[in-house]
Design a protein that fits this description.
Layout lengths: L2 H17 L1 H6 L18 H6 L16 E6 L7 E6 H18 L5 E5 L9 H10 L5 E4 L7 H10 L4 E4 L1 H14 L8 E4 L9 H7 L4 E4 L2 E3 L3 E6 L8 E4 L4 E6 L14 E7 L10 E11 L4 E7 L3 E4 L2 E4 H11 L5 E11 L2 E10 L7 H15 L1 H8 L7 E5 L16 E3 L4
Parallel strand pairs: 3-4, 3-5, 5-6, 6-7, 17-20, 18-19
Antiparallel strand pairs: 1-2, 8-9, 9-10, 10-14, 11-12, 12-13, 13-14, 15-16, 17-18
GO molecular function, one term: ligase activity
Keywords: Ligase
Organism: Kitasatospora viridis
């Protein structure tokens, strides 16, 4: 760590302790001059979001009087709100923009933005601002995710689009429309995706619709943690990204022991710190992903999937604590003794499976309880239901097992909260 980097870390910690009641309490037991990130506790997601609500926030370092607000939905009906000042938002777009050249954007590209807008979603707005601040000239086509496939194809043809920015599920749906209607669109040479993983089984249909296309990650970011890493030029493994240092700090921590990882090829939880954001400090925030270092000195890493904080099912974020709360509140009789979330991918789509441990030996009554859980998921997470209806993801599935039927960590014997079977 350089002296400038160490100084920036010390300034951020001191600022957060002085201005944010949440961080003041979290760091109350630490020395006043602490400046080493590794000496700080990790953010606990439950405590963090309980302290940061729409009506009242103990996290903010001051009033939010200029900037923008976004949210990511939680299944409990308590959305997670992210506040950015205007300078923070612009600086984030400018910093992320350097990755567009590495991803393959060229001067004069005509970019069809198919991300979702409105309802405080961030992807469309951020992509729009990203290209406005980009170090390469482009023409933007702000089509949006709500447009029908027919409208998207017509607009892209009318304005000779060369680049698509979209969720992988949106890209797959669009490819089907192109194949079924106009056959192919050879002008499209690049697709930039984010928000969910891109799977190899999605590529044949996409290549059929867009024969000259290359599919690349637009970069690594989240609404909560902000921008973190950019794609690497010449690297066509879309999971590989390089940390946007020095402003962003990414740590990989052993999932069991919590120890820092520096050697390549060893999976760890992604923990992020943003040295720039001040209104909503993000200091050692677990992003919810697993990754491994490709090259530690250059801070290049490969994403491996979701960790235990949450699951990404197609374009939908599902937070594990929210799911646990939903199941507990629905199971008024206390029948379910444990919950395990399994995410699978088949037939080109993701599926969320709830594995429920039945504390009773009788099968009677399971169907009613299962239906009630699914109904509550529909009520509390309408985006999930909407994406099922659109054919972007499979309907939720439920698996019943006995009290000992949940998969466990062989080293600790603890039940594994999330099994991401897409990694196999």
């Amino acid at each position: 760590m350089t002296d400038a980097h160490r100084s920036g870390t010390a300034d951020l910690i001191a600022f957060a302790r002085a201005r944010s009641p949440f961080y003041r309490d979290l760091y109350a037991h630490l020395p006043a001059d602490v400046a080493d990130l590794t000496r700080l506790p990790l953010i606990d997601h439950t405590a963090f979001w309980q302290a940061h609500t729409v009506a009242d926030s103990r996290l903010l370092t001051g009033p939010h009087t200029d900037g923008i607000v976004f949210k990511t939905g939680g299944t409990t009906g308590m959305p997670r709100i992210s506040f950015y000042t205007r300078p923070e938002w612009r600086a984030m777009a400018q910093r992320f923009g350097v990755g567009l050249l590495a991803a393959g954007v060229q001067p004069g590209d005509r970019v069809a933005n198919l991300f979702y807008a409105g309802e405080l979603y961030s992807s469309f707005v951020f992509t729009l601002n990203l290209f406005q601040e980009a170090p390469v000239t482009t023409v933007q086509l702000p089509i949006g995710g709500a447009a029908t496939p027919e409208q998207v194809v017509a607009t892209m043809r009318d304005f000779s689009a060369t680049v698509i920015a979209a969720l992988p599920t949106s890209l797959s749906r669009l490819a089907r429309e192109v194949v079924d209607t106009v056959g192919s669109m050879p002008l499209i040479r690049l697709a930039l995706f984010s928000g969910e993983a891109f799977h190899d089984d999605q590529l044949p249909l996409i290549k059929q619709a867009f024969p000259n296309i290359t599919v690349r990650s637009i970069g690594y970011a989240s609404v909560d943690a902000g921008v973190l890493a950019a794609p690497v030029a010449g690297e066509f493994d879309n999971r590989v990204h390089q940390v946007l240092a020095p402003e962003k700090v990414v740590e990989l921590l052993d999932p069991v022991t919590g120890e820092p990882i520096e050697e390549p090829g060893r999976p760890g939880r992604v923990v992020a710190t943003d040295l720039v954001r001040r209104l909503t400090p993000m200091i050692r925030y677990p992003v919810g992903d697993l990754a491994e270092w490709v090259d530690f000195p250059s801070r290049t890493f490969r994403l491996l999937g979701r960790a235990e904080e949450g699951a990404r099912v197609g374009p939908v974020s599902i937070f594990l604590e929210d799911l646990r709360t939903l199941v507990t509140e629905t199971d008024t009789g206390g029948r379910i003794g444990g919950l395990q979330v399994v995410v699978r991918h088949f037939d080109g789509r993701d599926q969320l499976t709830l594995r429920l441990a039945d504390s009773t030996p009788q099968a009677a009554g399971r169907e009613l309880l299962e239906a009630a859980v699914i109904e509550q998921l529909d009520v509390r997470r309408p985006l999930f239901t909407d994406q099922v209806a659109r054919g972007a993801i499979h309907p939720v599935a439920v698996e019943w097992v006995g009290p000992g039927g949940l998969a466990v960590n062989p080293r600790t014997g603890k039940a594994i909260r999330l099994l991401d079977e897409r990694l196999g």
